[in-house]
């Protein structure tokens, strides 16, 4: 059977890498976004607001996808609003599809806040037991990931398609304008340090500096999403997804520094807010971009230091178990330093960093 994918959030870090993967596999790919912009060649754009059901119905009127990939969210001021808005987006999508019963599989991408809690209570309270495993119960707090899952489960039961849920750790990959992009943020930070002579200081917590951790290459996530959409063993399952190796930031940080030709500064022993460090660097980046002929002069389009602070500032160890998907047949692996180096090389080739 032919495969036609609808990717919701097609311009984001997950959506762009997934689209590239599916197109390489010969799929027809539609990409839905509020404001479709430059992304992956070959994606058929659909402009729509997931909170406007009637306009969404019009935008999707001619579309009958075999697979739906939901890779989008909208950040709100409170978790209660996150729950309301982001679950509505999932429900509205399936309500607006002209023939949802023709969907064979739908996948939702969430993340490790499933285990760590939402931003309002992020990694607070008693430290969660590691490694994170899919069978761990939901936390007794409001969490928009849980609401999105429930909306997906309801739609799957109503229309008869299979589902999968994918929980990456910090995603490393290419996407300009993404709200949660550690890889590009660190590339910008290192570039500013090199250009200005500032020290390249690890901004996170002692637990993150010394402890074990992992990350998720966006290409690795795309591989699992593709696998889950085509493998019977993945139907109606939730899966963690990380690269498959383990890191300590005190081991990786000097390697990132070396790629940019700078020295890693000694770790100061406590967190240093990267958001505060970069707060006034808009003009600095614009000057660097102008001097090197870079394509993007807006620091905010490349860096999301608030999110990097949240991830690297966690006072707990973060290690993710991949046994469930491996036992089901997903055996892909990605070497973590290469996740960063490949991204840095692409950013430089596309004249986004000097």
UniProtKB/TrEMBL annotation:
Pfam family, one: PRISE
Top-level taxonomy: Bacteria, Pseudomonadati, Pseudomonadota, Alphaproteobacteria, Acetobacterales
Protein name in the entry: NAD-dependent epimerase/dehydratase
SUPFAM superfamilies in the cross-refs: NAD(P)-binding Rossmann-fold domains
Ranges for domain PRISE-like Rossmann-fold: 66-354
Coiled coil regions in record: none
Organism: Tanticharoenia sakaeratensis NBRC 103193
CDD domains assigned: 5beta-POR_like_SDR_a (cd08948)
């Amino acid at each position: 059977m032919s495969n036609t994918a609808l990717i919701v959030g097609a311009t984001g870090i997950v959506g762009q890498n997934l689209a590239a993967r599916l197109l390489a596999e010969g799929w027809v790919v539609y990409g839905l976004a509020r404001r479709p912009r430059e992304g992956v060649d070959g994606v058929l754009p659909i402009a729509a607001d997931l909170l406007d059901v009637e306009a969404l119905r019009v935008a999707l009127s001619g579309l009958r996808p075999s697979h739906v990939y939901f890779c989008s969210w909208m950040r709100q001021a409170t978790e209660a609003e996150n729950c309301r808005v982001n679950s509505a987006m999932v429900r509205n999508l399936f309500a607006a599809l002209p023939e949802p019963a023709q969907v064979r599989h739908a996948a939702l991408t969430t993340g490790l806040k499933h285990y760590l809690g939402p931003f309002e209570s992020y990694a607070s309270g008693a430290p969660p037991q590691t490694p994170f495993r899919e069978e761990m119960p939901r936390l007794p707090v409001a969490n928009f990931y849980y609401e999105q899952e429930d909306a997906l489960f309801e739609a799957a039961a109503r229309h008869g398609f299979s589902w999968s849920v994918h929980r990456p750790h910090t995603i490393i990959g290419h996407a300009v304008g993404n709200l949660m992009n550690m890889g590009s943020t660190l590339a910008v930070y290192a570039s500013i340090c090199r250009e200005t002579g500032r020290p390249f200081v690890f901004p996170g917590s002692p637990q993150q500096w010394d402890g074990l951790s992992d990350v998720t290459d966006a290409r690795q996530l795309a591989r699992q999403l593709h696998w889950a959409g085509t493998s019977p063993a993945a139907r109606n399952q939730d899966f963690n997804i990380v690269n498959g190796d383990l890191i300590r930031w005190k081991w990786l940080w000097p390697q990132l520094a070396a790629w940019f030709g700078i020295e890693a500064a000694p770790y100061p022993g406590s967190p240093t807010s990267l958001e505060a460090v970069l707060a006034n660097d808009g003009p600095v980046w614009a000057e660097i971009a102008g001097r090197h002929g870079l394509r993007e002069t807006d620091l905010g389009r490349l860096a999301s230091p608030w999110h990097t602070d949240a991830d690297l500032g966690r006072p707990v160890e973060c290690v993710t178990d991949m046994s469930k998907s491996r036992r089901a047949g997903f055996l892909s692996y990605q070497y973590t330093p290469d996740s960063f180096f490949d991204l840095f090389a692409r950013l430089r080739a596309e004249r986004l960093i000097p």
